[in-house]
Amino acid sequence: MSERRSFIRPYGDRLNDGAVQLSFSLPMSLSARSREAAKSIAGRLGLDQIRLVSALDLGNGFSFYILYGTTMVEIDDQAIHLTEVERPLLDFWRINQLLEFELKKRVTVVGATIGTDAHTVGLDAILNAKGFGGESGLERYPQFRVVNLGAQVPPDEVLEAAREQRADVVLVSQVVTQRNAHLENLSLLAEMLEAEGIRQDLLLICGGPYIDSQVALEVGFDAAFGPGTTPLAVASLIVEELLRKAQ
Amino acid sequence: MRLPISSEQVRHCRKLAASIAQEVKAEISPLSTVSVERSLLRLVGIEGSNQESVPLVNCFIDQITGQRALEDGALYWLSNTILATGESPQGIAERVGAGSLDLVRLPRQPRRAIEDLCRQIVQDALVTLFGKQRQRREMEESLARAPSPWLYVIVATGNIYDDIEQAKAAAEQGADAVAVIRSTAQSLLDYVPEGITTEGFGGTFATGANYRLMRGALDEVSRRSNRYVRQVNYCSGLCMAEIAALGVLEGLDILVNDALYGILFRDLNMIRTMVDQHFSRYLLGLFDTIIVTGEDNLIKTIDAYEEYSIVLVSQFINEQLAKNAGMREERIGLGHAAELDPALQDSFLKELVQAQLVRQLFPRSPVKFMPPTRYKSGNIFFAHALDTLFNLVSVWTDQAIVLLGMPTEAIHTPYLQDRYLSLESALHVRRAAGSLGRELRFLPNGQGAARARQLLAKTEESLTRISEDGLWNSLASGAFSAIRRTRKGGRGYDGVFRKGQFYQNPFLSREIVRRARRETAAT
Questions:
Q1: According to the model, what pLDDT value does residue A180 have?
Q2: Considering CB atoms only, which of A59, A61, A121 is closest to B300?
Q3: Crossing angle, helix B89-98 and helix B56-66, to 10 degrees?
Q4: Which one, A45, A118, A203, B77, has least CB within 10 Å?
């Protein structure tokens, strides 16, 4: 659509039709009553023109529903508030060039997944030479020196490595976020770096599929990345922030 | 639908793997570990924990370790104490747990009497367990046979009671095997928690009591739906042997049990892991339990197309290690995944070839095939499409156990409806494509044949190198998924010990096992 609209509604097949699809289970065996319950829930969610298009019994006293409806809710495009700033991406050559000639140093990045988290997929996607989404990982950049500590590193070992390696950047990946286990680990690390007096020498970044960037900033991180982040996005932020700090 | 591969080459791979496994066995036979010793105590019936919630089997082993008497092993000290005090194994363990009994201070009884008692205790334990096993097989045989492949789903709520509700629903929806994922990092704990648990992280704690509850629920659904539903849990970790013991005690059907997973992905010490895997597999073999290995993990961090042969290398080694522990091929479920980047041209054909190759290399193994995970995102609709293609590969290549992918794989542990949708797709494909493999052929000189030959050649090459370097050095040099581990590094090395001159473990005695089988048959 070339025309810029200021009021936005979900789109099915006509502008402003407000079409929404919805699915959920109920702890009820499938019956006329359970179907009615499913429709009532959609109604209470504010949907109109509700159509229950599929209702299936899941056994053991449960059932599953797929519904369509329309919503009157509309959003003012101009009033949308962003916590995550969309920043322009640099490219591989520009990043190396800026680090070599502007910052004039090779940047050391220490990365880990901390606590009990054993998932290194995200960390490796950013750091390993292999990279992710068709982009090279930070290891491939001549101007980055990468120290990948791997999985399940206690926060104090991250701290130790950061000091020993004279890290410029500490990158923490957290996948397991159930019951907010990650928040404890993240804030513990930030506090430890602070207490050891090296926090201000570092860029502290975290990433993971369910990291809330607002919360990450609140517990003391400089930046947070969500799902689908590519190495270039991380490298671009590192360059910009380090240059800004150097000024 | 066979791939044209050289059976000579396959035999050579097996021979190389056997020599790798033999070297490991020679090195570990004089050794035991704290986890093996705790498993022996569990097998002879000790359970529960003390007032500080420390499992009694840990209290027992910690006490003799503290007195530098671990080398004689748990059963020696248990028998010595029974002879000296006349108390029962459980009574003794409870007093050790309460701190009111010092095992090593008691007078040493005559060696012959201790040996006889050990053998008697073990034989009695085996008779009980063989009896339970027989009952379970009778129940299975009284129900309708499960079609192939078995559809395997996971539950992982953290609360065993919620797990049970979800497991029962899944079984009613058509699941043939249900696994309860363990709480994150339970594999790093050097004890097995006790009791029923309702809090976990990313999964539910594996405990004897939780196993028992789930077993009861699955048996109930099995009887109701006239279809035996298998219970699965996870052995790998510092308590590999102990969890195998619990699996046997509580009648589990399948245990995930990989010789290399803990070393590579949990940084467990390699010697500790090899000793633990050996005894755990021996035990599971004794009770004819299926193990499944975790080779799917190997291709998650590397280029899955270029370096796929590492899966086959690890499978050959896992197979020989399990056979060395006395398992038969029909119970060694080698695990694998074939997931390639969906952006790759002909990725489906390539996955099909990989899956077929595994099926052909290990014809008697109940191979376990693992679903796509790496290229799944929050796009649940595309994820469901990927899973349907995965199901097609599974059925087409006649995999034995198939862990179903979930549309929400990249988001959360499955919701009830996610599991339903997965089962619905898998049941459909099993019905719709069951005869495909018998009708279609690979071209003798097509892409698939060439790829199979290339993979087998690469596998042979790697196995040759590993058999020259030995497994320990190969683990140190990063031969497996570029992960490097040192011989004495990693968690759990301090729990390894050399068996002393009084050491007893009659579970390993063929004669005792034979006697116990005879006694069971006679009752």
A1: 66
A2: A121
A3: 70
A4: A45
- What letter does residue B3 receive in the DSSP assignment? -
Place of tokens 């498993």: B39
SS3 for B249-300 is HHCCCEEECCCCHHHHHCCECHHHHHHHHHHHHHHHHHCCCEEECCHHHHHC
Q: Which tens digits make up the pLDDT trace of A93-126?
A: 899 999 999 999 999 999 998 876 667 778 888 9
- Mean pLDDT lowest for which of A89-93, B91-95, B111-115, B518-522? A89-93
Question: C-alpha distances in angstroms, A216 versus A189, A199, A220, A242, B61?
Answer: 12, 15, 7, 19, 43
Distance of CA B511 to the CA centre of its chain: 26
Give the count of beta carbons closer than 10 Å to the beta carbon of residue A108. Answer: 16
Q: Would you list the DSSP string of B107-120?
A: PPPPHHHHHHHHHH
Q: Is A128 on the interface with B (CB under 8 A)?
A: yes
Residues 6+ apart with CB under 8 A from B363: none
Quote the pTM value: 0.85
Domain boundaries, chain B: 31-124
Residue pair B23/B324 in contact (Cβ under 8 Å)? The answer is no
Q: Specify which residues A111 forms β-bridges with.
A: A148, A171
pLDDT one-digit tens code per residue, B134-158: 999 999 999 998 899 999 999 999 9
Give the distance, in angstroms, between the CA of residue A58 and the centroid of all CA atoms in the same chain.
33
Q: Which of A34, A62, A121, A126 should be substituted to probe chain B, the one whose Cβ sees the most B Cβ atoms within 10 Å?
A: A62
Q: Measured between alpha carbons, how far is residue A175 from residues A159, A186, B16, B184, B264 in Å?
A: 20, 12, 39, 11, 19
The answer to whether the CB atoms of A124 and B301 lie below 8 A apart is yes
Asked if B152 is an active-site residue, the reply is: no
Q: Report which residue type is found at B152.
A: Y
Angle between helices B447-469 and B7-28 in degrees, nearest 10: 30
For B305, counting Cβ atoms within 10 Å of its Cβ (0-12 exposed, 13-18 middle, 19+ buried), the class is middle
Q: Could you report the per-residue pLDDT of B195-251, keeping only the tens digit for each?
A: 999 998 878 999 999 999 999 999 999 999 999 999 999 998 999 999 999 999 999
**If residue A72 lies in a helix (H) or strand (E), which one and from where to where?**
none
Residue B402 confidence (pLDDT) above 50: yes
Cβ pair B158:A151 closer than 8 A = no
Which token pair is B138? 């009778």
B261 carries an active-site annotation: yes
Tell if the CB–CB gap between B188 and A151 is shorter than 8 Å: no
Give the CA radius of gyration of chain B.
23
Q: In a 3-state reduction of DSSP, which class is residue B316? A: helix
Strand B31-33 with B496-498, pairing: antiparallel
List the structure tokens of B130.
């063989």
Query: Which tokens hold the place of A53?
Result: 């298009």
Residue A84 banded pLDDT, cuts 50, 70, 90: low
Find residue B452's DSSP bridge partners. Answer: none
Rounded distance between C-alpha atoms, residue B235 and residue B268, angstroms: 13
Residue B373 pLDDT > 50: yes
- Tell me the residue ranges of DSSP E strands in B353-427: 368-370, 401-403
Q: How many helices (H) and strands (E) does chain A have?
A: 7, 10
Q: Could you give phi then psi for residue B273, rounded to 5 degrees?
A: -65, -40
Q: Cα separation of A119 and B331, whole Å?
A: 30
β-strands A19-26, A62-70: how paired? Answer: antiparallel
Compute the count of residue pairs across chains A and B with CB atoms less than 8 Å apart: 67
Spatial separation of the C-alpha atoms in residues B384 and B382, rounded to whole Å: 5
The rounded Cα B229 to chain-centroid distance in angstroms is 18
Cβ-based neighbours of B415, under 8 Å, separated by 6 or more:
A25, B408
CA distance A96 to B339: 34
